[in-house]
Amino acid sequence: MTSETVQRRATGAGRLSTQDWTTRALQLLVDEGVGAVKVARLCRELGVTKGSFYWHFHDLEALKKAVADRWCAETRVALSEMASLGDLPPLERIRIMATQLVDDRSWSVERALRDWARSDEQVAATIADSEQHVFGLVQDALEQLGHDSRSARMRAGLLTYAGIGFAHGQQSLPKPTLEDIDDLVNFLSSEIEARRP
Amino acid sequence: MTSETVQRRATGAGRLSTQDWTTRALQLLVDEGVGAVKVARLCRELGVTKGSFYWHFHDLEALKKAVADRWCAETRVALSEMASLGDLPPLERIRIMATQLVDDRSWSVERALRDWARSDEQVAATIADSEQHVFGLVQDALEQLGHDSRSARMRAGLLTYAGIGFAHGQQSLPKPTLEDIDDLVNFLSSEIEARRP
DNA sequence: ACCACACCGTACCGTACGGTACGGACGTGT
DNA sequence: ACACGTCCGTACCGTACGGTACGGTGTGGT
Q1: How would you label B12-42 residue by residue, b for 16+ Cβ within 10 Å and e otherwise?
Q2: Is B69-188 in the same CATH topology as B2-57?
Q3: CB B117 within 8 A of CB B110
Q4: pLDDT recorded at residue B104
């Protein structure tokens, strides 16, 4: 039933569902920031008027909350999929996460959602959870490689913060290649050989 | 003359200068994001009306440009001060940069300005310059420590991205202590001992 | 004393936006 | 065929905002 509705709206005809609004709102949010998600703008892009919007949602906050709820759910799914990599060797887990972060277009929604989090508690909480989750995965992998907790904590934090930074960086710095990622993973898993005075 | 004007405005009396507007605008920008810097809001907080604003600036864009110009200038000064660390030992240079990044409150303006950069070309360009500059400093320091260019590039990118990420991260991850930074710097300057199969 | 200018207040306009009230079209079950 | 609920269009309101026009006020120079 819902799939049919979405299908019809995708072709331009038919009625709108809640998901149609949230998807378009999320797209607007990613492309042009929080300030671009407005009622009139959404209605114009969906080919409807405000009468439709205020039938589906009580107000703008309700729409934003729906978007946040949906994104939080999808993020939880993605994180659980990451956790299901537990049977792979630790080095491979880290490599996959690093590669996925760089290669995927997920950093664009990451960036948009992260500045939305400045004005929305729920989004901020979900992002914080996401950070801690990734950090924990990397830390566990490093500890399984024989690193003590202090070393694993430092290196996992370094990689996690670097991932966040990569999402927010301008494109001024050279984008790391697959070889760079290999170097990086090998580097992160290496032992400290000697300290220089 | 200007100092007197600023002084008097700081105590509540007197006329306003251009700097009074830019400082308050920057403060608003940092605290509540780009959407909070409005004419009426600024006038209310400065105890003036719009007649004053539109005498100092032609429109809102002019005010934003003034803020951007001023911040860009201050950033250039900070970067040149960083470059004046050239005579210090390389490890110390990296440690100072890392410590300053974590300890200082500069990350709050960093974060605000970086999402402003999404809608402003000048701000985006300045941030990109800043990134490349920091990256270059770290890379040079690592090369002076004997690392080949490929290794230095990877490690400098890792640290730079981690710095950006630290500015944008929620406070969910543990804030690195001074000891953590020591570990981090030692780790970044270490040699790869052995690769695990 | 007077003038000129920097600085600001007052009043006003156009527009964009969030939100409301209400009616009409369309399908669906009986 | 009838009623009912879903979904949306139309018209309208209040407000907040960017911007303009113009008059007033204080201060420094001559």
Answers
A1: eeeebbeebbbebbbebbbeebbebbeeeeb
A2: no
A3: no
A4: 67
Task: Give the separation between CA A173 and CA B151, rounded to whole angstroms.
Answer: 15
Nucleotide nearest to A20 (CA to C1'): D7
Domain ranges of chain B: 2-57, 69-188
Residue type, B151: S
Does A34 sit within 8 Å of B128, measured CB to CB? no
> What would the CATH number be for the domain defined by B2-57?
1.10.10
Closest CA to A159 of A172, A178, A177, A141: A141
Q: Please provide the CATH number assigned to the domain covering A69-188.
A: 1.10.357.10
Angle at B28 (CA atoms; ends B27, B32), nearest 5 degrees? 125
The reported pLDDT for the residue numbered A1 is: 36
Q: Please tell me which residue lies nearest to nucleotide C16, judged from CA to C1'.
A: A40
Alpha carbon distances (Å) from A169 to A124, B160, B184: 20, 10, 21
The count of residues in chain A is: 197
pLDDT 10s digits, A44-88: 999 999 999 999 999 999 999 999 999 999 988 988 888 888 789
pLDDT above 50: residue A109: yes
Distance of B155 CA from C4 C1′ (whole Å): 63
| Distance C26 C1' – B189 CA (angstroms) | 71
